Input
Amino acid sequence: MTAYRLFGADTSPYSLKVRSFLKYKGVDFEWIGRSAATEEEFQSFAKVPTVPLLVSPNKAPNQDSTDILSVVENDVSEPSCVPDDPACAVLALILEDYADEWLNKAMFLYRWGAKPDREEAADRTMDQLFSGKLPRAKKKTRDQIVKRMRERLPLVGVEKKNEKTLKTSAERFIGLLNAHLENNLFIFGGRPSVADFALAGQISQMLLDATPGDMLRKSAPFVTAWCEFMDSPKAGAPFKTLDELKPTLLPLFSDEIAQTYLPWAEANLDANQSNNDRVNVKLEKKAFEQVTQRYAATSFKSVQKAVRRLSDNESLTSFLDEAGAKTFFEKGGK
Output
């Protein structure tokens, strides 16, 4: 038996995040696609009904993709995915959280928001669940999957009044990332960081769906090629310094992350701490409202702590200040 066993799905961005990370680390693992045939074994390990689920030697089963990457990094230090520049290492954590908690909203919207994307996604999900042996009532099953997934849209913040904000945000981020990847093999230089694994997990899913996939292939060729490479990445060179990356990395933070994700994440954390069921925040002068996301609040709090631990790093402080992001990490927030 292999050292690690990863239960996942090709339709899950977090599963792809962990799978490509294990490949990069050279870890011997077994990929177990979640389906009706593997459900009983999955349930024997799972505490929540979601993938990924990593079964590891001498450790409890883990279903948190961020924690999985951290634990495996500590166990298998090389090849490292932690940038040498401490400021870059913290910025990578911010980008990882952006991918997992904000960009995921747009991915979910593109996939389940409109036809034909949602029907094609349901077909892929059905093929996965039944291991290619589709049920006779194919249309009925597909419609049930679509209905169930569309009912989940508000839970991740995909409400009608938020759709334009989410699409504008995702398209802007992808354009800025494409410009950055023109001169960088990975986000922080010659090897991938947690930011690469998290972002590629989300954007690779968009490439599977017709509408965002066409947009990516036409307008973001460097992002598209990077996503393909991220399926099984290899280190090509050392990490770069923040000064080397800054010309195209800073706009990602100043023009997008500080405009959308950070104010939303701060508002969501505040709502969670106040036990409010809903978040209300202005993003670029437009109202954005959704159900409070408890896990996202905990995750952002961890990112804030990571930034504060490096509060004496002038390079990081200066970068965040120039990006208009510094205030979101100061004690007590804005």
Observations:
- The two ends are 51 Å apart (CA to CA).
- The first strand starts at residue 4 and ends at 8.
- Residues 86-109+158-329 form one domain.
- DSSP finds 14 helices and five strands in the chain.
